[in-house]
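Annex B, item 7. Sequence and structure tokens for protein A, then protein B.
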Amino acid sequence: MTGGQAVTTVHGRCCPTAVYEAGLRSVAGRLWIRHTDGRRESLPVDRWRGGVKPGDAFLLRRCNGPTLDVGCGPGRLAAALTVRGIPALGIDVAPFAVELTRRAGAVALRRDVFGRLPGEGRWAALVLADGNIGIGGDPARLLSRTTELLAPTGRALVELEPPGRPTGAHLIRLEGPDGRVSRAFPWAFVGVEEIAHLAAGAGLRIMEIWRSKGRCFAALGS
């Protein structure tokens, strides 16, 4: 839904992709989550855009082979890996995010992680940064899908909520810089304390947990 195409609405609400793309396009990078309890939380659009951000370097160092960046957004991680000579593919459901990733110099496709993807079973690393462990609102299902995508010795690199942050699966809405509000959709927030249990359910184990620049990460492997 780029280039002036009509915005899809569902029961009077915009689809989440349209509101997300509006946030990516906005100069100020303004985008919010509206929780069911009424809380409104600002999303770090400026961190998603542009070059490598604080905390990214330690994540990128752990990508030692062909890497799938799930929910790549504007593509800063896929682009950084490409510059370093590491084969990387970004996937995102938002057409404008895919376009931005390509502009940044990386390869990207408009794909759903639960759909058919190139290189299934052969990726050395799979990145779920910027809260993308929450995609679909079912992290157990997403981690099980991850095991199908990774090579036998591959690693999932997952960004997590820090201790003390609210976690769990919820219906949320996106609010954009132009005042539009999306329909509700499922998302999950997964904390450091929960990842070992979720990983075990998918046949994965914790290889490493680290913190960098106020962000929390885990490396999962079989």
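Protein B:
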Amino acid sequence: MLQSDNNVQGKKENIIPYIPDGDFYFTKGVEAFEKNKFDVAIKWLRKAIEAVPDNPLYQCQMSIVYTEIGAYHAANQLLNEVLQATAEQYTDCYYLLANNYAHLGLLSDAKKYAEMYLNKQEDGDFREDAEHLLDLMHSDKEEGNEWEFDEEDELIIYQDMVFHHLENKEWEKALGLLDEMMMLFPDLQLVRHDYTYALFFSGSPDEAIKMELDLLEEQPGSLHSHTNLALFYYETGRKAEYERHIKGLLNVYPIHEQQKLRIAVTLAATGKYEQAYMRFGKLAKQQVKNHLAYYKWYSISAYKLGRPSKALSLWEEGCRKHPVLADEEGPWKTS
């Protein structure tokens, strides 16, 4: 027997819609993590954090996934945010930070955070792990050479944090750290070039160009000045100035992989896709795979040159290694 419209409408009104909550997304994320489906885990955990932004458990679990894929700087940023938000009450973060710093080779910081965890959590879940970590570092330590690299470690930490902010286009955060670095390490030229780069994209292009021109005057052969100025002039539509700087880069073939990558990215970002693709193909992938820009601009170059399968493969691999890349439009959507 067919139901009347009134009966159907009445039943519809009695249906209670199911709206997933943070715990639902979190559970799905943990299930994916346990199956080593890290990219899926990150997507679910992001939904959990969006649903309940102030739940430290969700953010700590996300940091663990980041650690598992080698994104230690992203993991540490989350952990520090949790500590700040919870007035340092979520003490598991100290062990997780110690573990990440150990992976980064920053042993003095790993030791510091492991000891902080043990001091705050005498019977914590990670007690044995923290003690084991300290034992490993103690056994690797040479006699008479105890933690002599604090200044070098500090520089590496700053560089790692700046690298993370620049990759994620967090310009103001990068500028704040770079300001500190210029005071602490005044002879480190790369810091000044990174500062002009962040300054340009934070909305001060004229000031950035002036500063970079001053740096170029100090060091006329600076690769970093030429790559920055080529990009700055391209972005501001000053074609003649752009051509002058990019022309010089086309004839430069550095020895170091990071410099090679910088040129390849600059070529791709300014529309020189064929030359960029050639440069990307000659890079030692193992040395540049931690750079989101490698996957992004190599993929875009491949797509622009009519190699969609290569572009898709690079983009998917890049999203697995750098989950934040998934938030950007793929190369097939670039103008």
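Comment on protein B: The CA atoms of residues 250 and 285 lie 21 Å apart.
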